[in-house]
From TrEMBL:
Residues 13-133 form the Activator of Hsp90 ATPase homologue 1/2-like C-terminal domain. This is SRPBCC domain-containing protein. It comes from the Bacteria. Belongs to the AHA1 family. Transmembrane segments: none annotated. It holds the Pfam family AHSA1. Gene3D superfamilies: 3.30.530.20.
Amino acid sequence: MSTFDYAITRTLDAPADKVWQAWTIADDYGKWASAEEVVLDVRPGGAWSSVMVLPDGTRIPLSGSYVEVVENKRLVMGMDVPGRDEPVLMNLELAADGEATKITLSQTFDTAEDRDQAEQGSNFLLDSLTAHLAA
């Protein structure tokens, strides 16, 4: 069976601990990720949930758990997907680069369509995160 994956790498103008906080503190995450009702239990096996609010007002409930947590360096998050037995994993890698941080988001999917949709979503998230950190 073939798999379809993507990896997006960007350099953010903020230290790694600030980028980490943006992903792991519920209030911070909600601000930049257009999410409400954010609950983050950031530890291996801990659950997360949020409601993503799209620009048109559509609300999408999301949930999952944390698989791997290495503070200021690596988060592996599983996302529950209706109709799938196993969660879809998203890998987030942070690498300090002076006062900047290199961030890489990556995922693997069964179909090109799912990959393309997730990659578009990840680019949107990274655009929002970049704007949040610059503010």
